[in-house]
Amino acid sequence: MTDCGRCVRPIPKTGKNGPKVDCAECKLSFHGKFVDLTPDDIQYYVENNTVWRCEACAKVRRKSMALESSMTSTITNEDVFNLVSELRKDLRGVEAGLGKSINTAFEELKETKGLVSKQGEEMSALLELVNKLSTENAALRNKVAMLESRMDDIEQYSRRDTIEIHGIPADRGEQIVEVVKTVGRALDLTIDENMISACHRLRNREGSGKPPGIIVKMTRRMDAEAVLQKRRVKRNLNTHDIGLTASPAMPIYINESLSPGRRRLLNAAREKKSEKHYTYLWIRGGKILMRKAEGEPVKVVTSLADLDKL
Question: Does the pLDDT at position 50 exceed 90?
Answer without folding.
Answer: no
